[in-house]
Design goal:
Blueprint: E1 10-12, E2 16-17, H1 23-30, E3 45-46, H2 53-64, E4 70-72
Parallel strand pairs: 1-4
Antiparallel strand pairs: 2-3
């Protein structure tokens, strides 16, 4: 569907930002991805262990390279 929106600009990010007091926060602690009390003002992102960050980054960058209206955000933060 995004391909049909010719006059739109897409800001593409990867990973899911972790916010305190959320289910994802509790899951990230349980998995050892963050520690209780970590300062999350500096963004921390959750990545599935089922796919590598590098592979996702490569796929998105290759797709975005063919599109003038795709702007890629940060990929490889923790």
């Amino acid at each position: 569907m995004a391909e049909r929106l010719e006059k739109a600009v897409f800001f593409v990010f990867s990973g899911v930002r972790i916010y305190p007091r959320t289910v994802l926060y509790e899951q990230a602690i349980k998995e050892g991805r963050i520690k209780p009390g970590d300062n999350l003002l500096e963004p921390s992102f959750y990545w599935s262990s089922h796919v590598s960050r590098e592979k996702v980054s490569e796929l998105v960058k290759n797709h975005a390279a063919k599109r003038m209206n795709w702007i890629i955000g940060v990929f490889l933060r923790r």
